[in-house]
Specification:
83 residues, alpha+beta, five-stranded antiparallel beta sheet
Length: 83
């Protein structure tokens, strides 16, 4: 997957991300993103939601239990890709 998207940081600066993966857990979709040109950066794991107009939004995961489950599933996906 070579898709990229541009998101705004807290200061309104545009940052380009490579979409590493999208995946679902229990009818909820998630995206794994990596800043373009910064291979040393941490992977961002965000929930995919849709606003009232049906436009896609990427949302941070505040719930610790949900976040840990997303990490586990993403790491398993990465292990499977290496096999």
């Amino acid at each position: 997957m070579n898709d990229t998207i541009v998101l705004l940081d807290e200061m309104g600066n545009e940052i380009e991300f490579q979409v590493l993966s999208t995946f679902g857990i229990d009818d909820v979709d998630y995206a794994a993103l990596l800043p373009v040109g910064d291979m040393e950066s941490l992977t961002y794991l965000l929930r995919i939601e849709y606003d009232e107009d049906g436009d896609l939004m990427l949302v941070g995961i505040d719930d610790e239990k949900e976040f840990n489950e997303v990490i586990e599933v993403y790491e398993e996906i990465q292990r499977e890709k290496l096999q």
